[in-house]
Amino acid sequence: MTEAPRRRARQAVAAAATTLKDKTVFFFPDSQLEIPLARFLARECGMIPLEVGSPYIHDALHGPDLDLLPEGPQISEGQDVDLQLDRCREARPDLTVCGLGLASPLEAEGLSTKWAIELVFTPVHFYEQAGDLAALFARPLRRKDILEAAE
Amino acid sequence: MKLTVWTYEGPPHVGAMRVATGMKGLHYVLHAPQGDTYADLLFTMIERRDHRPPVTYTTFQARDLSRDTGGLFKQACQEAYDRFKPEAMIVGASCTAELIQDDPAGLAETMGLPIPVIPLELPSYQRKENFGADETFLQIVRHLAKPMEKTARVSCNILGPTALGFRHRDDVQEITNLLYEMGIEVNVTGPMGSTPSDIAKMGQAHFNVLLYPETGESAARYCEKTFGQPYTKVVPIGVGATNDFIAEVRALSGSTATIDMQNSRQSWWSRSVDSTYLTGKRVFIFGDGTHVAAAARFARDEMGFEVAGMGCYNREYARPIRALAKDYGLEALITDDYLEVEAAIEALQPEMILGTQMERHIGKRLGIPCAVISAPVHVQDFPARYSPQMGFEGANVLFDTWVHPLVMGLEEHLLHMFREDFEFNDAAGPSHHGGHAPVAQTGRRDAPMSLEDKMKPEEVPASPGGEVIWLADAEKELKKIPFFVRGKARRNTETYATEKGIGQISVDTLYDAKAHYAR
Asked: Is the dihedral of CA A131, A133, A137, A139 positive or negative?
């Protein structure tokens, strides 16, 4: 029964994954969706999570997703935003997922960002939305490519 | 306590943030829980600022409350000083943190930091954002500005601009240029654009130009008393007010320089024939007191509109706006409840609203065009282009901005003439708005329904309890009236019918009412 939607989802995700593959991603805590998103971006889009910060990590809820994350990324809970910004600037990730308070300032520093709140407003669950979800992360990277190519 | 979804002003600590974010070299340590950090995005998202506001939040959480939140505050102060090395710091509590009574001022004082630390006492539950900005700027000036010898050449300070202000960026540029033309140097512009060491030099100026009384008047009064600096009272919005402002500045400075009026086009634009259709357009004006007063004068005297209603949300300006409204033969609406404003607009059915972002939303719901004249603002009120409200260029901008939402002069006639046409009918709206035309109808029955309207039980059109009934012919005739006056026509006709004790509105009633209200 899920075969057709799964196929469509894979096909749609693959389109965005060409942009996302092997790119690094850094999460500031905001939407509480950070851990499952990191799992999705790592396993299905080929991204490399460097840090996954979440406002609050509930073991029973996040445990299964945490188990599926690749080795490597720092998992942080709560935040000291200045220290985390130091780590982010040091890591220079290809994509930073953060709140709107940080997004424009980080863009001004040359980092591509995806504002987390959009993930709360956009339907991103289930097979038919998986492609849209991946595309949300690919868009800032594609935009940067377009604007830089025109420079 | 009243809960609301949208407010015109934030709590006073947001006003303090507007001051701090406009300045450089100043840091704000704010005792606040984690959620309050969201205030950052007002500046980075709405104003598109490319730096975070210079604010350190202590971000205490529920579990900290059983421990030493005072210690948390001192630690945040120390870390902020070490990291940002500001020239001066302001410290205070947000509305939530005020409740735990940690006394940030006293705590910071005991720390012996090697810079001025300015405590803020902002009563979060009595006052609001504009007060917060005004009070913060006053405290900064009181703590940092010292009496000084006046500059050799005549100079002034510009007071009031803050981060997140409505067109402050461009107003400051416009007025700085105007003052320069008059041979007057600007000593310090603040809070926005200044550093604490600039503020220290404010006493050098001969007088002050107060552009935004909401956020700068307390500092202006303090400087008048302490440094003998008189300040300007006219806010130069509109050609008339700009001329008055120039006269005021000449009196304060002795300047006799002539002003180049070549680029002041607004007066002629208002007199040229296409503007005839603006005559008597009924406008409703709402915003902060200063912008409302300025807009009312410009609307009536320089655009030829009729001011149908006015009011302000900041109750500090209730008295002057009430007095002003009386001069216009109106009663002012003083409220910070947008639902009251919406009800007033719906009842008045103006042809245009001059308001804030809130009124823009109200206008969208009611299908009434709106131009924004005052904070609170939206991301689109920070245009990339130069777009002041003040000075002669500001008047040009006002003309364009206020005319744009309206249907153009000849177009009114065309829409009427071709109202049965499939393409150019009145439901299509103003031609220059493309697909984003204001919703065509404002009448109750033909208005598109919002979600909440859909959830209400359907209104019975013929209510026997004294409500007037529209006969089918009259209803059809009403549709022939252009949409931008249809709401008013419906309301006037119903009022007329009620007054005359007519229970059913026929085509004759409609035209009797039209004749009755003819202007």
From this structure: positive
Q: Do B38 and A101 touch (CB under 8 A)?
A: yes
The C-alpha atoms of residue B405 and residue B431 are separated, in whole angstroms, by 11
Query: Model confidence over B52-89: pLDDT tens digits?
Result: 999 999 887 777 777 778 888 899 999 999 999 999 99
Q: Choose the closest CB to A105 out of B37, B44, B61.
A: B44
Rounded to two decimals, the pTM is 0.85
Residues pairing with B207 in the sheet: B156
DSSP string, B157-200: EEE---TT-SSHHHHHHHHHHHHHHTT-EEEEEESTT--HHHHH
Please report, rounded to a whole number, the percentage of residues in chain B having pLDDT higher than 70. Answer: 87
Cis peptide before B376 (omega within 30 of 0): yes
With contacts defined as CB-CB under 8 Å, which chain A residues touch B45? 100-101, 103-104
Contact assignment for B49 to A104 by CB distance below 8 Å: yes
- Substitution target from B17, B43, B47, B50 for chain A, most A beta carbons within 10 A: B50
- Nearest Cα to B204, choosing from B223, B219, B220? B223
Task: Specify burial of residue B495 (Cβ count, 10 A radius: 0-12, 13-18, 19+).
Answer: middle
Segment B364-412, tens digit of pLDDT: 999 899 999 999 999 999 999 999 999 999 999 999 999 998 876 666 6
Of B34, B44, B83, the CB nearest to A101: B44
The Cα–Cα gap between A5 and A9 comes to 6
Buried b (16+ CB within 10 A) or exposed e, B170-206: bbbbbbbebbeebebebbbbbbbbbbbebbbbbbbbb
Residue with tokens 């935003």: A81
Greatest alpha-carbon span in chain A: 49
Mutate to test the interface with A, among B44, B49, B85 (most CBs of A within 10 A): B44
CB atoms within 10 A of CB B394: 27
For B409-499, list the strands marked E by DSSP.
469-470
Å from A117 to nearest chain B CA?
Answer: 11
Note the ipTM here.
0.85
- Closest chain B residue to A102, measured at CA: B52
Tokens of B222: 């303090």
